[in-house]
Request: fold
Amino acid sequence: MQRCLWGLIITRLVWPISAQQKLKDGLSILWLRMGLIWKRDPLAMLTEENVPNAYLDIREELDLHQFLSRLESMRSSAMAEVHLRGPFPGATYARILESTGAMLDAFHAMNVMIMKNQRATKGEAEILRYTVAERTHLSTRISHLFQGRNDLSKKTILKLILAQC
Reply:
């Protein structure tokens, strides 16, 4: 009986497999991948001379959605873990994962629209050429946010993301 109790203490408190840490790391990896996809500048594909390819192929999109579903299962596992620092913020992470899913859906919608209209009209091409500097600047900022390379703390970044929801 003492050995069983000792085994429970060791496996639950001293040496846990932390789903919370895996969730944080996985979310960072997912956002990094999304940032790299966004850096491809999907709107620039409409003005290129050759016929644009999908900036997000089906396999990559499927991988991202599968990874998101694994993160959602990790969130439910993290809520069942014993936490010495206080309760796990499950509702906050649920909103973050929901917002990340909405961003992935927006990536998909943009990809569908680009593949549907593969050539920009003269007016659209002119607007895209005129706004290339602003789009590059915005893309850099979004990529930094996805990659977590801001001077802001992670808590502030999460607040900014949640404020956008």
Observations:
- The chain is about 70% helix and 0% strand.
- Helices lie at 2-14, 19-38, 58-80, 90-116, 122-130, 132-147, 154-164.
